[in-house]
Design a protein that fits this description.
This protein has one domain. The protein is mainly α.
C-alpha cells in the first residue's frame, strides 16, 4: 500500500481546503435530495438507482478527463464501492431498528476519523498544530451537527454498532479512493459506482426473496390519535447519515416503488450527479494535499444538508447543531490558515 498522503506547499494546501469544502457542499446537497426522494420510495432502491445513474455519469466524466487507470486503481475503486454499499445497508438497518440520534453521529465522526487515523499511522501526514486542532474540532463539529431527535427504540450498544458499520463503509471508501494513483483519472469512481450498484441490487433481490415478516420496514411516523403527525424519519437515499432534511414536519406519505413515485427520478439524477461530483472533488483534494484534511472537510457535508433544510423548509436548528456549525467554521478557519 502506498502512502496515502503527500507533503504539500501552502498553495496546494489551500487548494485541498477549497476542494474539500466543495465536496462537502456537493455531497450535502445530494444528501438533502436523498432525504426528499426516500420519503416517497424505498431508500435502498433509490440508492441503487442513483448508483446506476452515477455509474453512467462517471463513465462520461472519466472519458472526458485524462486518466489511465491500472488494475490496482480499479480494484481499489471497486472495493470502496462494495464496502460503501455494505456500510449504507448496515446504517439504514440502524436507522430502522436503533436510535438514529446515536447511530448517525457515530457514523459521521467515525467516517472522518478513519482516514485521519490511517494517514497518521501508515502515511506521512504531518500537520501543523493549527491544522491538527482544526481537524479535531472538525470531528467534534460533525458529531454535533449530525445529532437529531429520534423517538425510536433500541439499545445504545446496538445503535453504536450500527453507526460503526456505516462509518467503516464510508471511511473505507475515502481511503480506497485516496489510495489510487494520481494518473488514474476518474476511473476508480466508475468502478466504485458499478460495484456499489451490484451489491445493492443483490441486497434488494435478497430482501424481496425473504419472507414478508422478515423483511422489516423503514421507520415511519407512528400513528397517534391524540397528536398531529410530527417528525418523520426516513433514511437518505444517497446520504451517509440522517439529517434535518429527513426530519421535517409533514403528513406521512406512503413509500412506493421507484417506478410509481412521481417526481423522484429528477431527484435521483440530481443525487447521482452531486455525489459523483463530490467523490471526484474529494479524489482531487487527496491528490493535491493531505488526506486527513480532505476527509474531515468532506465529512462536514452534514452542515450543508442542515443549511438546505433551514433555507428550504425553514427548519429550526437545535442549539447543539448551531454550536456544531460554529465549531465547523472555526475548524475550517484553523485548517485554512495553516
Amino acid at each position: 500500500m502506498r502512502a496515502i498522503s503527500r507533503p504539500d506547499s501552502r498553495g496546494d494546501f489551500a487548494v485541498t481546503v477549497l476542494l474539500g469544502l466543495l465536496a462537502a457542499l456537493s455531497v450535502g446537497t445530494s444528501d438533502f435530495l436523498g432525504g426528499l426522494a426516500s420519503r416517497r420510495a424505498d431508500p435502498v432502491v433509490v440508492t441503487a438507482a442513483s448508483s446506476l445513474v452515477g455509474f453512467l455519469l462517471a463513465c462520461v466524466a472519466a472519458l472526458a478527463v485524462e486518466g489511465d487507470a491500472n488494475r490496482a486503481d480499479l480494484a481499489w475503486g471497486a472495493l470502496g464501492g462494495v464496502v460503501l454499499a455494505a456500510g449504507l445497508v448496515v446504517l439504514y438497518a440502524g436507522y430502522a431498528r436503533a436510535r438514529v440520534g446515536i447511530a448517525a453521529p457515530v457514523a459521521g465522526v467515525g467516517a472522518a476519523a478513519l482516514p485521519v487515523i490511517v494517514s497518521s499511522v501508515f502515511g506521512d501526514d504531518a500537520l501543523s498544530p493549527a491544522a491538527t486542532t482544526g481537524v479535531l474540532l472538525g470531528l467534534l463539529a460533525i458529531g454535533l451537527v449530525s445529532i437529531g431527535r429520534s423517538d425510536q427504540r433500541g439499545t445504545v450498544g446496538s445503535s453504536v454498532l450500527y453507526g460503526l458499520g456505516g462509518a467503516a463503509g464510508i471511511g473505507m471508501l475515502l481511503l480506497c479512493l485516496a489510495n489510487t494513483s494520481d494518473d488514474s483519472g476518474l476511473w476508480p469512481i466508475v468502478a466504485a459506482r458499478a460495484s456499489g450498484f451490484a451489491v445493492l441490487t443483490l441486497a434488494i433481490a435478497a430482501k424481496r426473496a425473504a419472507p414478508a415478516e422478515a423483511r422489516g420496514t423503514w421507520p415511519q411516523e407512528p400513528a397517534s390519535p391524540d397528536r398531529q403527525p410530527g417528525l418523520q424519519a426516513a433514511p437518505e437515499a444517497r446520504g451517509i447519515w440522517l439529517q434535518a432534511a429527513s426530519w421535517r414536519r409533514a403528513r406521512p406519505q406512503r413509500v412506493v416503488a421507484l417506478a410509481e413515485a412521481r417526481g423522484v427520478w429528477p431527484q435521483v439524477i440530481g443525487i447521482a450527479a452531486l455525489i459523483t461530483a463530490g467523490n471526484a472533488l474529494f479524489l482531487a483534494a487527496t491528490r493535491v494535499g493531505s488526506t486527513s484534511v480532505a476527509a474531515v472537510l468532506t465529512s462536514m457535508f452534514s452542515a450543508a444538508t442542515v443549511f438546505w433544510a433551514w433555507l428550504v423548509f425553514r427548519e429550526r436548528l437545535r442549539r447543539v447543531q448551531m454550536l456544531g456549525l460554529g465549531i465547523a467554521l472555526v475548524a475550517v478557519a484553523l485548517i485554512a490558515s495553516s
